């Protein structure tokens, strides 16, 4: 059997490699490990000091941390007709069924939501209400607390398979139906 010889790098690939490795140097001997079973020691990262501030004071400089925002349920343009969407946002349409996910774990809520959505679609329903709650609003001082896990997760679950095949649109509910703590889910017609 003939073995292929490596083709080597093209000039543009060599240029890219040189730009990529520019400024990279070999690790010091003290960090190199000799024994394959031994883990190498990691160098301590360089941490910039945090400037002093007073409570209530605004930041003096912009942070270099990139913050991304996931698409919220109202950020995407509606897929349903404009008239129906307008009535939905005004709370004029009454949901045909609802599920309350309060107090459920993320795993239990995901399973219950899947079952509810597919059962509602199979039953010919078009508009259902998914109640997640607004999340825990306790203030615990300086420690950051993850709030409203279900409130953040449910729209994502509804946008991804397998539920995306049944869901036409998702919108935050009108305050008479739960406001920020609930979502309208407009289902596709079954064919």
Question: Brief overview, please?
Answer:
With 191 residues, this protein is of the alpha+beta class.
Characterise this structure.
With 191 residues, the protein is an alpha+beta fold. The chain is 25% helix and 11% strand. It has four helices and four strands, in the order H-H-E-H-E-H-E-E. Strand 1 (97-100), helix 3 and strand 2 (127-131) form a beta-alpha-beta unit. Helix 3 (106-122) packs across helix 4 (149-159). It is extended.
Strand order of the largest sheet: 1-2-4-3
Shape: extended
Strand content bin? 5-15%
Mean pLDDT: 76
What percent of the residues sit in helical stretches (DSSP H or I)?
10-25%
Largest sheet: 4 strands, mixed
Separate helix tally:
4
Q: Output the helix-strand order.
A: HHEHEHEE
The separation of the N and C termini measures: 56 Å
Q: What ranges have pLDDT less than 50 throughout 5 or more consecutive residues?
A: 62-72
Total count of strands? 4
Radius of gyration computed on alpha carbons = 26 Å
Q: Helices and strands in order, then pairings?
A:
Elements: H1 11-21, H2 82-89, E1 97-100, H3 106-122, E2 127-131, H4 149-159, E3 167-172, E4 182-187
Parallel strand pairs: 1-2
Antiparallel strand pairs: 2-4, 3-4
């Amino acid at each position: 059997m003939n073995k292929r010889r490596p083709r080597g790098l093209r000039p543009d690939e060599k240029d890219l490699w040189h730009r990529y490795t520019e400024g990279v140097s070999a690790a010091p001997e003290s960090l190199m490990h000799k024994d394959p079973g031994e883990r190498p020691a990691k160098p301590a990262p360089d941490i910039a000091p945090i400037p002093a501030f007073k409570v209530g004071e605004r930041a003096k400089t912009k942070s270099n941390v990139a913050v991304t925002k996931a698409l919220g349920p109202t950020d995407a343009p509606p897929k349903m007709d404009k008239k129906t969407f307008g009535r939905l946002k005004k709370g004029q349409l009454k949901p045909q069924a609802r599920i309350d996910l309060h107090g459920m774990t993320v795993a239990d809520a995901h399973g219950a939501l899947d079952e509810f959505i597919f059962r509602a679609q199979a039953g010919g329903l078009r508009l259902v209400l998914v109640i997640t709650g607004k999340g825990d609003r306790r203030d615990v001082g300086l420690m950051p607390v993850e709030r409203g896990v279900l409130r953040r997760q449910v729209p994502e679950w509804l946008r991804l398979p397998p539920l995306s095949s049944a869901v036409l649109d998702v919108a935050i509910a009108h305050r008479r139906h739960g406001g920020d703590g609930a979502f309208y889910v407009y289902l596709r017609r079954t064919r």
